[in-house]
From TrEMBL:
PROSITE patterns: HAMP (PS50885), HIS_KIN (PS50109). This is Signal transduction histidine-protein kinase/phosphatase MprB. It is a multi-pass membrane protein. Residues 202-223 are annotated as: Disordered. Residues 258-477 form the Histidine kinase domain. Its cofactor is Mn(2+); Mg(2+). Residues 184-250 form the HAMP domain. Its EC number is 2.7.13.3. The chain crosses the membrane at residues 160-182.
Length: 487
């Protein structure tokens, strides 16, 4: 791909450089040709005036002397003829040459050239004829023809062309160096990425039948590949990676389901057997029995938490509950908050705590399903009810900020130390002041759910004591119009 990129860059550079060089060379040649022509045309006019005076006086000597002096100065010959075409004075011009005859005829018929026939080129003849009439209008008394030398002008043009070509070659060389460095700088990360992706793709399993792959919806989003072969190969590698990731997510969900089925049944059977044995347990072993029963309950709670966490960490696109295109992906925040606050009122009263709500909006929607938002609020309110302490007050606040809904659960309870704040969303972490009975999975589940729906969960201490859990919900995106042909 680098070779093709260099070819394209150098092609455009060559077109640009030569597109500038060729017109510049033509301009230089035209300018030098016009300079030579105008200079010799002025001299021809001056000799025409001098020849007219010599014809009037009949004395050719002053004219011939000036013509010889001009020949010594410029090494150029001059021919003067009268109105009948008879030679009047000549310093060496070949009158039998076809070009000279044509120039004399054109001047005598008043059709002589008033400009150079074309711009000089290095391969043109070494002489150029410049003619001027003697007299004016209808009174043409003869003609003056200067056989001007183009050697010096062509040499200057050749030198300027060489200088322009050298500059163009230098510019093209510099651009080639820049193109080499730029292509290396641009494509080196791509090559490294391609090699890394290719190496990773080689280690990924490939499904034997794509039509029956659980990742069919991901793979089918890729059609034909276009562009350089390296980019096509990279695209195919990314396609394989996305397929493998999709299959991995599906396997993870299947593992969670199998694990739930495999572990729940033995735990349920164990719990039933313990309940059946409770009546025959001796008094001296009752304490150990109760501890075993509590451990079974704790394992059941941990299993439930792990299952919820696994579901919460599953990307939205792989949620079976959202396979229906009409599954609700938004909710009325105020309705969900009011429902959960009302539901938790009894629990807070039993715990000798107060629960209040403060709303600054009447209706606000967020891009999150109602059941997911309810689960997050249940976790925050459950933690406050369990760990804030007797006599604490908890307040639920709802605010609207930049089209986002922000729900805050604030209490003035025991709180959490500064060094433990950042650990609260870590799995199985329990604070030093936490009461027994929790699993350490509540806030990790809430954090995973919030991230799953592109929201933000913030936890901060309250001064002088207490905890502030803020949930920033994503705004609802405007619905796109249905395209034609869509059912």
């Amino acid at each position: 791909m680098r070779r093709r990129l260099l070819v394209v860059l150098l092609l455009f550079a060559s077109l640009a450089v030569y597109g500038f060089m060729v017109p510049l060379c033509m301009t230089v040649s035209t300018s030098r040709t016009q300079e030579l022509w105008l200079n010799r045309f002025v001299y021809a006019g001056w000799f025409a005036d001098l020849a007219g005076k010599s014809m009037d006086s009949g004395d050719r000597k002053p004219l011939v002397d000036e013509m010889e002096r001009y020949r010594e100065l410029y090494s150029e010959r001059i021919l003067v003829v009268d109105a009948s075409g008879v030679e009047f004075a000549n310093t060496g011009v070949d009158t039998s040459a076809r070009g000279v005859e044509n120039a004399v005829v054109a001047v005598r018929s008043n059709r002589h050239a008033t400009g150079p026939p074309h711009r000089l080129r290095t391969w043109d003849p070494d002489t150029m004829l410049v003619a001027s009439p003697i007299g004016s209008g209808l009174h043409i008394r003869g003609a003056v023809v200067i056989e001007a030398s183009t050697v010096r002008a062509k040499s200057e043009i050749t030198g300027l062309w060489a200088l322009i070509s050298l500059g163009a070659s230098t510019a093209l060389t510099l651009f080639t160096g820049v193109a080499l460095g730029l292509s290396r700088w641009l494509l080196r990360p791509l090559f490294k990425l391609s090699d890394s992706v290719a190496a990773l793709t080689e280690t990924l399993p490939r499904p034997p039948d794509k039509n029956h792959s659980p990742s069919k919806t991901v793979s089918d989003s890729y059609g034909g590949y276009f562009g350089p072969p390296e980019i096509q190969e990279l695209a195919r590698s990314f396609d394989s990676m996305s397929t493998a990731v999709s299959d991995s997510v599906h396997s993870q969900r299947q593992l969670v389901a199998d694990t739930a089925h495999a572990i729940r049944n033995p735990l349920a059977a164990l719990a039933i057997r313990l309940q059946a044995m409770e009546k025959v347990i001796p008094e001296q072993a009752r304490t150990s029995f109760l501890r075993a029963s509590s451990q079974v309950d704790r394992l059941t709670a941990i299993l439930d938490g792990l299952l919820k966490l696994a579901v919460a960490e599953t990307p939205v696109g792989y949620d079976p509950a959202q396979s229906d295109a009409h599954w609700p992906d938004r909710c009325d925040v105020m309705r969900v908050v009011e429902d959960r606050v009302e539901e938790w009122q009894v629990a807070f009263e039993v715990a000798n705590m107060t629960l209040t709500a403060e709303y600054s909006l009447s209706v606000i929607e967020a891009a999150i399903p109602a059941d997911a938002l309810a689960q997050i609020l249940d976790i925050a309110l459950s933690n406050s009810c369990r760990y804030a302490g007797s006599g604490a007050a908890t307040e639920v606040r709802v605010r609207g900020e930049s089209e986002r809904a922000t729900i805050s659960v604030v209490d003035n309870g025991i709180g959490v130390s500064e060094d433990e704040i950042t650990k609260l969303t870590t799995r199985f972490f329990r604070g030093a002041s936490a009461v027994p009975g929790g699993t350490g999975l509540g806030l990790p589940i809430a954090s995973a759910l919030v991230q799953r729906y592109r929201g933000e969960l913030l936890i901060a201490p309250v001064t002088p004591h207490g905890l502030h859990v803020a949930l920033r919900l994503p705004p609802v995106k405007p619905e796109r119009p249905m395209s034609r042909g869509t059912a």
